[in-house]
Design brief:
alpha/beta, 15% strand, binds 2-phosphoglycolic acid, TIM Barrel
Length: 254
């Protein structure tokens, strides 16, 4: 079975102390994960080392950065390079979140460069894609997401692609309380897998974990994660509350 992943995206929330307390509460639950299950905490940069040491003795619990720069190094004041993440042993990095695409004008081409740098350093990218409301209302969501995938991912080799986790996050569902129905999520996830299959073959496409993101919470996680092509979730708001996130972890397919 593909990896089933519950990924917490803290975004720009919580102080260091609050973050440490939240991790303590979640890990205190001592929820043992199956061999194919993973929990990933995407925390703000200054908390990465703390979070990494919190999960150090936990099987299949990991940390992720929420972003990285698309250039290797240099005069980019305030930015964080992939090599820096590597040097502190970070195994995952979220890229292309819709908030970064929208507020920081990240393009598909920049994301392609980030993917190369991450894969070179053997950091697994969690690549976000997803359409805005206007595109969904016009019925063009498939074409929109296909272009995001093609322009950022399709230069990768099949072996490289198997290292990428994809997160489908319809923008109209992020932080709005408006979740895609499980049927809408399944339909898009199956479409994404078919696009990957055309380019890389069915075996590679079947091995890629595709997470759903957008108002995932304890109350809808079971239903969403039970869909055959939904391999877990990327969770914003609900990942900031221990009880909610623990319930989401427990909803992962076994
Ligand atoms: P949300 O955010 O769960 O608060 O909707 C998801 C995300 O942006 O990754």
């Amino acid at each position: 079975m593909r990896k089933q992943i519950a990924a917490a995206n803290w975004k720009m929330n919580l102080t260091y102390q609050q973050g440490e307390k939240l991790l303590d509460e979640i890990l205190h639950e001592k929820h043992a994960l199956g061999a194919q299950q993973q929990v990933i905490f995407a925390v703000p940069y200054p908390y990465l080392i703390m979070a990494k040491s919190e999960v150090a003795n936990e099987q299949n619990y990991f940390v992720a950065a929420q972003n990285c720069h698309h250039k290797k190094s240099g005069a980019y004041t305030g930015e964080i390079a992939v090599d820096m993440l590597k040097s502190i042993g970070i195994p995952y990095c979220v890229i292309g979140h819709s908030e970064r695409r929208e507020y920081f004008n990240e393009s598909n081409q920049e994301l392609a460069a980030k993917l190369d740098l991450l894969l070179e350093q053997e950091i697994q990218p969690i690549f976000c894609c997803g359409e805005p409301l206007s595109v969904r209302e016009a019925g063009n969501q498939n074409e929109f997401v296909e272009i995001q995938l093609k322009e950022s991912l399709f230069h990768l080799s099949a072996t490289q692609l198997t290292k990428v986790v994809i997160a489908y996050e319809p923008i109209w569902a992020i932080g709005t309380g408006k979740t895609a129905s499980s049927a809408q999520a399944q339909e898009m996830h199956a479409f994404i897998r078919s696009v990957l299959s055309k380019q890389y073959g069915a075996e590679v496409a079947d091995s890629v974990s595709i997470l759903y993101g957008g108002s995932v919470k304890a109350a809808n996680a079971d239903e969403l994660f039970s869909q055959p092509d939904v391999d877990g979730g990327l969770v914003g708001g609900a990942s900031l509350q221990s009880a909610e996130f623990i319930a989401i972890i427990k909803a992962l397919k076994k």
